Each structure stands twice: as C-alpha cells, then as structure tokens.
Amino acid sequence: MAFVPRLQIHNLGPVEDCDILLNRMMVLDGPQAAGKSTIAKAIFFFRTVKDEIFETFFYERIDPVPWLNARWYLLKKLNRILGSYMSVKRGTYLSYEYAPNIKIEVRLTKETTSLITFSQPIINALEKYRDIDFKTANMGDVRRELQELFADNSKIVYLPAGRSFTSLLMHQLNYLLAVMDDKQKDTLDYCMKDYMERVLQIKPQLVEQQLYEEVARIDSAHFGFMLFVREYMGRILKGRYININGEEGIKLFDSDSDKPIPLDFASSGQQEVLWILNLIYYYLREKQPTMFIIEEPEAHLYPDAQKEIAEYIALALHGNNECVVTTHSPYILGAMNNLLDIKRLADKGVYVSRILEENGLIGSQLLNRNEFAAYFVDNGTITDAMDKETGLIRNEMIDGASDRINRLADEIFALESGNYD
Q1: How large is the angle between the packed helices 303-315 and 220-237, nearest 10 degrees?
Q2: Which of 11, 296, 338, 410 is spaced 20 to 30 A from 93 at the CA atom?
Q3: Cα–Cα distances in angstroms (integers) from residue 16 to residues 234, 264, 382, in the given order
Q4: Distance between CA atoms of 166 and 300, rounded to whole angstroms?
Q5: Strand runs (DSSP E) across 176-246, as ranges?
Q6: How far is CA 292 from the centre of its chain?
Q7: Which residues of the chain have pLDDT under 50?
Q8: What's the burial of 308, exposed, middle or buried (CB within 10 Å: 0-12/13-18/19+)?
Q9: Which residues pair with 105 in a beta bridge?
C-alpha cells in the first residue's frame, strides 16, 4: 500500500490541532478565518522544501554544513509564509512526514527560537553535498536525488484567493515587481507573490495559437483529453481566452463583436477563475506532475459555474497530479460528491456511460474515494467530513446554512399558523 504523507499542526494561527493524511484530492471546508488557508500554506511550505533546498546550493553559504545552511534559508521562507501565524506563547508545532523516516518538524517555544529539525536520513543525504562544486556538478542529478529523497517530483502551484486583483493589475505586474527591491518584495504575501511570478512566467506561453492549436503536437490520446479540457474552459468562461502581444481578453461565444473583452473589463467571476483554468491547462498540457493548491475556486461564480469549476478541478488529477481545495461552497462539495458516487457505481460494475454523456462528463473526472478526503475546519480543530459508510462528504457539511435557513422558515410558518411551540 502506498505511503500517504501526514501533516500535523499545533497552535498555528487559528488552528489548534490538526492531524491529517494528505490524499491525492483533499477539500477543506469551514467558515471564514477558521484556518483553511493556514493549513493550505503549511502544505505549500512543506511541499516546496525540496525546491528550496535545491535553490540554497546557489545562495550565499551561511553555514558550510549543507543541512544547516538549508535550515537557515528554510526558516527565512517559513517566516515569510507563516510567520504571522506562529506563536511562542502558544508553542507552535508543525511536522510533515513525506515517506517512512523522511520527516521535517518545526517548533517554536518559549525556551527556543523557531527551529526546524530534519530526520536523520535527510541529514545524511544532504551531507554528501558538503564538498561538491555546484558550478560544475550535474544539477539535474542533484534535483532528481532530492525528489527521490522526499518522494516528490511535483511542481507545487498555489492559487490564492483574490486572483481578480492580479487580473486587474496584470499590465502593471512586470513593472511593479521590477521596481520593488528585495525588502519591498518581502512585504508581499509569499504565496501571492509566487502566484504572480508564475502567471507572468507562463503567460507568454499561452498565446492563442499555442493554447488552442499547438496542442495537436501532443500524442493523440493526450490530444483528445486536452481538447476536452479546452472545451470545459469555454463552458466556464462563456468564451475563449485570448492573449495577443501580451494583451489578455475573453472572446465571448454569444457576442456579435469580433473583438475580445479586455481582461480588466471582464466579469469578476471570469477574472477570478481565468488563471485557475489556464494554470491547470498548462501543466496538464506539459504532462508536468503537479500539486495544485486552490483557494476558493467558487469566488464570484454563479452556482452553475461553481459546479463546473469543481468538475474542471477533477480533471486536474489526470496522471499523478494532486489537489488541495479550500471552499465555502455547497455547490463545489455537492459536485464532488456526485463524481465520487458515479465512481462508486462504476466500481460496482454499473454502466455509467449514459449518465456521463448526458451530463457532459468523462471518466477522468470521476473521483476515487480511496484517494479523496474532506475536512471541516472550525473552532481550531479539524473534523473528518467523510461518511465512512457511504464514502461521500456528509450532507450536514455540504449545506448546513441552508438547513438552518429552512428550519427557520419552517418555524416562521408555524408561528404564523399558530402551531409554534
């Protein structure tokens, strides 16, 4: 049985206790400010450790011992991502177990400053790099060794909330990042900065021809899958993404005009969702193993589009990809439950092709309950939101607010009719 990574958190911001296994698909639900983003950022930190260690080989040596040098830079990154959530008074603790005996821990107590500790196999692996000249070393081999050590060869792609903000400022992003010095950049939210830089890096590769025509260069089986992904993008955008000479827009399907709508004039929902669509499309097209961490994919979307973005995110699991989603949306959760339930029927031998065809779905979107987890985050704790018997997200987690609204409506009706006790 494949090893499932484990994340533990104690006293990190609003999260008092969290001990979860990271399945290929994980959904975090719960009210605002409950800690969903805190958990997502902790996952982002730990899953990018391998990349940060690789980068430290090119940084100024603070310490000649490789693992101590890496720890110094990791502490700096940790403080950029989670520093405002960490507390000496409460005693913050985090750990991530990547594979058997491959573990990183973070402690912050009154007795010590923030401290990162590596399990011994990590220290042993990094010690071999003490006397290597990285100017002449085969860095491709070094990167692969780190990926094998942490059992992780994935890109980690964080899509934060507030994406429409960067869409509005897309024309200025290059300039803003260029004129900011390192101290000013350090004031930016780390995950937002990572997202902005990723969009700027990938955007030139998503010109119209590449996005909608050069996909034909991919092998035929993948070509058909990517055409379906492209069609789903159109469903959600209600149009086609255009990128001409760096100017982004959306050509609406039902518009009589041949001119695309400039992105900063598109709807807030289109601005929020566009780069979820584009980034998933890009990494699927490149067949690059990826973990997507997506905050509030439902933002500013009509319920139909919320359902469709959930189905689109399910496509992101193609290959060996992974996904973490934070959400408040019952439509997101309900759509995922349907994909789980159809897969359950298919596994029982029920013929599901007709229901897939009638609903514009394909088998690649179905979710395997053995690789899916959902948690409810509230009051500092994490509750398993999966029903063990059905293998689905529990109904009370999906639409508790609607239940309370309906219950109050029933009480109002009873009060008016004289039957209220």
Answers
A1: 160
A2: 296
A3: 41, 40, 9
A4: 15
A5: 239-244
A6: 3
A7: 209, 211, 412
A8: buried
A9: 95, 117
